[in-house]
Amino acid sequence: MAFNLFDFGLKKAGKVQLFDENSLDSEGNIIPFETQIAIVSHYLQNETTIFDETYREKAQQFIQFWLDWVRNNPQNLNIEKSILAAPSALDFYIFKDIYNAPFKAIDNPKFTFIDLFAGIGGFRMALQNLGGKCVFSSEWDLQAQKTYYANYGEYPFGDITLESTKHYIPDNFDILCAGFPCQAFSLAGKRLGFAETRGTLFFDVAEILRRKQPKALFLENVKGLAIHDKGKTLKTILNTLDEVGYVVPTPQIVNAMYFGVPQHRERIYIVGFRKDLGIKPEDFTYPEQKEVTKHWIDVREAEPVPSKYYLSTTYQNTLIEHKRRHEAKGHGFGYAIIPDDGIANAIVVGGMGRERNIVIDHRQTDMTPTTRIKGEYNKDGWRRMTPREWGALQGYPVYDMGDGKPVFKIPVADASAYKQFGNSVAVPAIQATAEQLLKTLKIK
Q1: pLDDT of amino acid 195
Q2: Which of 9, 384, 412, 444, CA to CA, is 20 to 30 A from 245?
Q3: Closest CA to 274 of 312, 244, 236, 239
Q4: Is 30 helix (H, G, I), strand (E, B) or coil?
């Protein structure tokens, strides 16, 4: 069985007591193994650059201890003697997930960035495509961390609100990226600035900007942020960004369907530049949104999908009746069927994200149930989109096109995959906007 550092660390490290005196933090507490993996993977991704200094000391201690432990406890991993005898072979054996990641950090980057509230790395994918190198990532969800690690060979640090996490953010990176959650702010003081963000996750973004002062920032959020709390939330965010030293052009709602993915997905983008760079708001322009080039059929799985994605007759009838009741009341609620030449509705976490994106697909002929369902599979070809199709709707390279390019891995169960892609940014729209940001910074 192939060794996986992620799985071993989370499932077995505690049981086999894979810790020593170097596994303690400055207060004498054991550094969790997932944090150790984050430190080591960040170090190996940034080794021999100015950014490895943040991780170097602890990472080298962990690596040496792990290698020694494996040599002394080969029975735990069932490792061949030939691997144990060759230092380079053992090193690769333990860290092959990092070295062999399909989308690991690039060498000789044009710029650097950090990836906060990273999810499964939509910002990272987009900025790496433009020649950037991620030097720090943070994401608290375990399943998202697993997908991130499988694709980028880097285990994200956890809770960004903790000072122990912020401690590992290096200096001198160029761009801060964050798809931060929208939260209500306390406006008791009515200064509509930094103080009113305290206790929210945006406060941590602002605090990192205040401390690290990167050249630019790129934030993404739901469209509703523009009108949240009658516009006060957005006003607080913009005033805070000004307070911590950034010029912010007017935020814009960007629709992913104009950037090569057939999904009607509107999100607010906020871009900012450090004031001492002399960049004025009018120096930056968001990318044009003028043409739809792809439709649902362009991202549909090439082969028939398993029967489990088809709706049962019971579920189909429930959706039909639910929509009929709402139509009788004059409402537009209910399921939606996306035609082959259509544009998908926004994919979101929860039932409606799937029910508003039902497709008709008659290619599957074996409708033998593989999961428990009520009734039988419908004969009208109604099915849910698959997680891989959701990935394609967000612009991830989830299909093997036979061109030798890497394919995005989905190492989690369907429920987690739907959640991860539904929460993700749309990669092509982020990339088009980041390209404009880089032009403004004169990074080519």
Answers
A1: 75
A2: 444
A3: 244
A4: strand
CA distance 397 to 399: 6
Vertex 227 angle, CA 222 and 233, to 5°: 85
What is the tens place of the pLDDT at every residue in 310-369?
A: 999 999 999 999 999 988 888 777 899 999 999 999 998 876 778 999 999 999 988 887
Q: Which helix (H) or strand (E) holds 175?
A: strand 175-178
Query: Global pTM?
Result: 0.93
pLDDT confidence bin for 1, thresholds 50/70/90:
very low
The encoded tokens of residue 198 equal 């305290």
Active-site hit among 44, 63, 130, 182: 182
d(CA 200, CA 337): 38
Predicted local distance difference test score (pLDDT) of residue 351: 66
For residues 130 and 436, give the distance between their C-alpha atoms in angstroms, rounded to a whole number. 11
Q: What are phi and psi of 266, to 5 degrees?
A: -100, 130
| Distance in angstroms (rounded) separating the CA atoms of residues 99 and 153 | 7
For the ranges 15-29, 49-63, 266-280, the one whose mean pLDDT is highest? 266-280
Q: Give the integer Cα–Cα distance in Å for 93 and 112.
A: 29
- Euclidean distance between CA atoms 221 and 122, whole angstroms: 13
Q: Domain 102-292+409-444 maps to which CATH number in 2.60.40.3760, 3.90.940.20, 3.40.50.460, 3.40.50.150?
A: 3.40.50.150
Task: Please state, in angstroms and rounded to a whole number, the distance separating the CA atoms of residues 339 and 360.
Answer: 7
Contacts of 73 (CB under 8 A, 6+ apart): 16
Asked if pLDDT for residue 6 goes beyond 70, the answer is no
Whether 182 is a known active-site residue: answer: yes
Ranges of each domain in the chain: 1-100, 102-292+409-444, 302-385
Res. 51 pLDDT band, cuts 50 70 90: very high
Beta-bridge partners for 344:
263
Query: Token match 């934030």: residue?
Result: 219
Q: What is the largest CA-CA distance in the chain?
A: 74
Among residues 384, 304, 287, 288, which one has the least CA distance to residue 344?
384
Does residue 267 sit in helix, strand or coil? strand
Q: CA-to-CA distance for 117 and 157, rounded, in angstroms?
A: 10
